[in-house]
Structures are given as C-alpha cells and as structure tokens.
C-alpha cells in the first residue's frame, strides 16, 4: 500500500480534521495545510480547519494568504485537546506538540507530514522526509498519486511553497522538488506568483534590517547581530538572509525581541556548522531551537529576563550579552576573535 493511500484510508475514519500550522506559518506550511485539506475533502471530511498561532507578518506570507484567499483560523487549544474521537489532528511542516506550536505536549496526534529533523515523533500516520527541500513536495506527491483535482489556487500555493523553501531550487532541492514542480506547472497562475514573490516591504522591516546591519559583530566567518525590539518577527529571517551575503561570512545569526519572546534566525552554508543543532543545544534549557544544517530558528520566552523588564535599554543589553555568550560557547569562539 502506498503512503498516499495509507493517509487516505486514515482520513476516512474522521468526520472533522484540524490541521495545525506551526507558529507564524510560512508558505510551505500554509500550502501543505491547504493541500491536506483538499485531500481530506476528497476522503469525505466536510469539517476542515486550518489553524495557526502567532502572527503572519512577513510580506510574502501575508500576500500568500490574502491573494490565494486561504481560510485560516486562530488556534483554539480546546478545539484540538478536547476533540471527539472522530476529529483528527494533523501537523504539517512540524512534528511535535509543544515545539513551535501551541498544542500541549503529550497531545495525541493523528497525522504528521514534515521534512524537518525531529526525534520521537509519534502519530498514527507519520511521513517525515528530512532529505526533501519542502513539506509541500510530499503533499504534491499525494495529490498526484490520489488524482486530486488541482486548480490554479492549489497548484500556485504548492509551487510557491517549494520555490520559497528551496530559495528557487538553490537550497536543498532534490529530484522530488523538480518532479513536483513539473507536475504543478501547467496549472499555476504565473501572475499570482509574480505578485506574491515581490510584495512591498514595511518600514518596520527596513528599520530592523538597518539595525541588524549596524549591530553586526563578526568573528572570523561567523556573524552575530540583533535587531533590538521589533514588531515584525519576520524581519529577522529577512535580516539574516541579507547579512549572510556579506563577503567572508559563512554563518550568520540574528536575534531580536518580539513582544514577550526572543526570536533567533540562523543561516549557514558551511558544512562544518549545523545551525539547527547549534540553536537547539544553545537554548534547549530556556526555550527551543532547531532546523536544518543551513537554516534554523529558535524562541526563548522573555520570562527568564523578567527582572530586567522595567528598563528596556537594560533589558536589550542583557539579552544581547546572554544570547551572544550562549552562541559563542556553541560556536567555540572567543572575544579576541572579534573583527
């Protein structure tokens, strides 16, 4: 029995499905959720919900949701933790309750479809392929195998997701990504792709990137910087993508405070550095972190710095020192290496 058919058979057991995105979902997560919803509809599930926590602030992500008119709802813990037996819970583009999502740890999960490294993933159905460049690749494979109708919205969403997570097939793309793109190409809306790929940039994002440029610290081929406090969480990956292009830099890490959480974003084409493991090891005792060897992110609740919240400038100084010190220990660099 094929993996796609196994999924289809599991879906026939349900009357409802709650597809939970990870916090602050990106195109890969959103498109995968959309595709799983279409597969669930084909299997006879009428009640389908795509749920998310956090915010959608990245300009491309907002354009993705608005222009493709994706129906997403704010996550309600009661909807998944007190669900009836015929209500299915699915994760796409993430794997474990409580890690990069607001589902309580230990909550039973029915379906997991992911391409990120993870340990001890438990669900009735698990398809996790670390070798792939995007979760959307797996969903495109299912859609094709199950002969699900592909309209321009679904094809465009999956294509953008694959392109986004592989940086236009320049990072982590495998033969499966090219095959999925070939399958989807006939039905994509090229004009929609152009609009979503070139959204306007907010002033807050530009300010955050500028701050990261000013605060950059390089030690050999490693760059660490911060954006201070920002309202635009997704300015961090945009800032680190920009700084990673600096000549001589092989590993770039940018952090910043968004509301009551410290967010960290990392990039590294250096095969000697696995930034997913680096962020996990650096922050697992105070928050969470992880990802691929070249792209990763982390979150640390600001509660550990609660004693310093009365003075924001002091808070920023403390956060900068603590986060930088933790990263320096994991990267095995010292202050006298700073340039």
Automatic annotation (TrEMBL):
Coiled-coil-forming residues are none
The DHHA1 domain is annotated at: 222-322
Q: Which domain of life is it from?
A: Archaea
The record's listing under Pfam families reads: DHH, DHHA1
GO MF term set: nucleic acid binding
User: Taking every annotated instance into account, which residue ranges of this chain make up the domain DDH?
Assistant: 17-162
Under what name is this protein listed?
A: NanoRNase/pAp phosphatase
Organism in which the protein naturally occurs: Halapricum desulfuricans
Q: What gene makes this protein?
A: nrnA2
């Amino acid at each position: 029995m094929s993996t796609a058919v196994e999924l289809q058979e599991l879906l026939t057991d349900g009357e409802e499905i709650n597809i939970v995105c990870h916090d602050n979902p990106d195109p890969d997560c959103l498109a995968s959720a959309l595709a799983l919803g279409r597969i669930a509809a084909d299997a006879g599930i009428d009640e389908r919900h795509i749920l998310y926590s956090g915010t959608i602030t990245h300009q491309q992500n907002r354009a993705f949701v608005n222009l493709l008119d994706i129906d997403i709802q704010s996550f309600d813990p009661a909807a998944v933790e007190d669900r009836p037996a015929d209500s299915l819970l699915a994760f796409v583009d993430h794997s474990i309750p409580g890690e990069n999502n607001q589902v309580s740890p230990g909550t039973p999960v029915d379906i997991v479809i992911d391409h990120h490294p993870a340990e001890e993933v438990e669900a009735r159905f698990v398809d996790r392929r670390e070798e792939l460049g995007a979760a959307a690749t797996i969903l495109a494979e299912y859609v094709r195998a199950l002969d699900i109708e592909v309209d321009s919205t679904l094809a465009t969403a999956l294509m953008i997701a694959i392109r986004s997570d592989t940086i236009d097939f320049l990072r982590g793309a495998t033969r499966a990504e090219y095959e999925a793109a070939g399958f989807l190409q006939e039905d994509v809306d090229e004009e929609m792709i152009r609009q979503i790929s070139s959204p306007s940039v907010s002033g807050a994002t530009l300010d955050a990137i500028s701050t990261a440029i000013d605060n950059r610290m390089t030690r050999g081929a490693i760059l660490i910087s911060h954006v201070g406090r920002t309202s635009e969480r997704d300015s961090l990956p945009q800032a680190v993508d920009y700084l990673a292009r600096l000549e001589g830099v092989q590993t770039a890490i940018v952090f910043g405070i968004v509301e009551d959480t410290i967010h960290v974003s990392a990039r590294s084409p250096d095969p000697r550095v696995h930034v997913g493991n680096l962020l996990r090891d650096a922050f697992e005792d105070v928050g969470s972190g992880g990802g691929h060897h070249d792209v990763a992110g982390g979150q640390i609740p600001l509660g550990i710095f609660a004693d310093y919240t009365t003075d924001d400038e002091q808070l920023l100084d403390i956060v900068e020192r603590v986060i930088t010190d933790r990263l320096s220990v994991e990267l095995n660099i010292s202050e006298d290496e700073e340039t």
